[in-house]
Amino acid sequence: MNRKPSTIVTIALLVVTLNWFAAAGQTNRPSVAEPRSVAGIVYEDVNRNGRRDPDEKGLPDVRVCNGREIVKTDAQGRYKLPVTDDTIIFVIKPTGWMTSISDDNVPRYYYIHKPQGSPKLKYAGVDPTGPLPESVDFPLHRSEEPTRFKALFFGDTQVNDQKETDYLAHDIVEELVGSDAAFGLTLGDVSNNNPSLFEGVAATVGRIGVPWYSVPGNHDLNFDAADDAHSLETFQRVFGPTYFSFDYGGVHFIGLDDVMFTGWAEGSRHDYKGGLGKDQMEFVRNDLALLPKDQLVVLVMHIPLMEVEELPELFKLLAAHPHTFSASAHYHYQEHKFFGKKEGWDGPEPHHHLVNATACGSWWLGALDEVGLPHATMRDGAPNGYSIVTFDGNRYSVEFRAARRSADYQINIWAPEEVARDQADKTYILVNVFAGSEKSKVEMRFGKDGSWISMEKTATADPFYKASQEIDAKSLEKQQPTSGPSRTHALPKAIDSPHMWRAALPAKPPEGTHVIHIRTTDMFGQSYAGRRIIRIL
Known about the structure:
Blueprint: H1 5-24, E1 37-44, E2 63-65, E3 70-72, E4 78-82, E5 87-92, E6 97-98, E7 100-101, E8 107-108, E9 110-113, E10 138-142, E11 148-154, H2 162-176, E12 183-187, H3 198-206, E13 212-215, H4 233-239, E14 244-248, E15 251-255, E16 259-265, E17 269-274, H5 277-289, E18 297-300, H6 311-318, E19 324-328, E20 335-339, E21 351-355, E22 385-392, E23 395-402, E24 411-414, E25 418-419, E26 428-433, E27 441-446, E28 453-454, E29 456-460, H7 463-475, E30 497-504, E31 512-521, E32 527-536
Parallel strand pairs: 1-10, 11-12, 12-13, 15-18, 18-19, 19-21, 25-32
Antiparallel strand pairs: 1-4, 2-3, 2-5, 5-9, 6-10, 7-8, 11-22, 14-15, 16-17, 20-21, 22-23, 24-26, 26-30, 27-28, 27-31, 29-30, 31-32
Helix pairs in contact: 2-3
């Protein structure tokens, strides 16, 4: 049948219109949403009541982020950012100001926008937040922040149940209550595959009395999540953004989520890799672009930097900043790494990366002591503990602290109890310098009149740790948690410790009982000493 062109056009428009109405009625087909944005004000919360009163003014030039873009507030403290239905908006705390904190000292510097809430998971995520408020405002109050200050770094607390949360409390937290640190950071693995423990750990660590930030680890995931994007819903509910940044005392800190959940591997084992993803890399790029070049930039994360998929790109971004430092955990031993041109770093000085000691040591394993706490020695032979990092302008220093030990407990000396005189120069003394690095100087002196000699850095297992392994495996009963997989006191396999030194005894020393003296100075000029008694036959 022949039709006039105008008739054909009319019929075509009718068909399109009918199809549009049919599609609109299908609820399983997403509709095209209008671009949305969030707006609000960052203001000075003079009376610290958490809400903006009429006389409280907006603060200009404060950075606000939606996880990708970063904007600065205008002269009246106003900002505007794009949002989706799964966005956390957060303020980047400037030097001299502080955000709200919870009763457990968890900083509250963010607003979670999840209108439908988290997906249904074994461990609860975020409840539905409903429609986006007309104004999402962030309170800040003035805070005195000296350029010289301390921060506490915890590697994996990694508690398996309430009993191990109590270990954390008695082994580490109690000695830090009232600390003069400005704040603290947990470098991932808050729990051991049990996000229901997050609140309990936060309450325990919060008793130290300083603001405490956390980045996620591979054991903090919601393992029943469908994908990486929803694998930290419980973490977000308790701690907020999985990555963030803030300034303190002139230093810029960037907390990274470098654990990418990749699903389940064969044998029902959760799988993951080290990486940041496109959105987080965009956040880092935008964040660094707003910083003064002479500002110290500190990155904290869980998986060590060398395993991060985007490391080359990250190094390119950091190369424009001459003062950098980074820290991670994850390995359950302590090590200082130095990245140079061989590793793709192009800065004026090698980039220093600290693999921090873990609070749980070897997963809260080891024989129980006289007060019922496991010794939890790490696989490198160092005790479980934490770091005190002191910042001063764009300089910093790191001090390791062993749990429930004095500040000067920094080395362990192995030597046989007795040595035949004619075998002395074939007998090596081993020294574990718990926080030692390739930049440490370690020396030995035999007796009161001997000369100081340099010790040689060597890769070997700590003999004390190997002895502890044998004792634990043979004589200790099983230690079962109240939930989760069974545990034993038995320690994991020893590694070749990255901070061992050795030197031979002098040839034909005099017979009798003598003192071996050890002294060491680290890369920050901090010096420590130790002694060991030996008999020469």
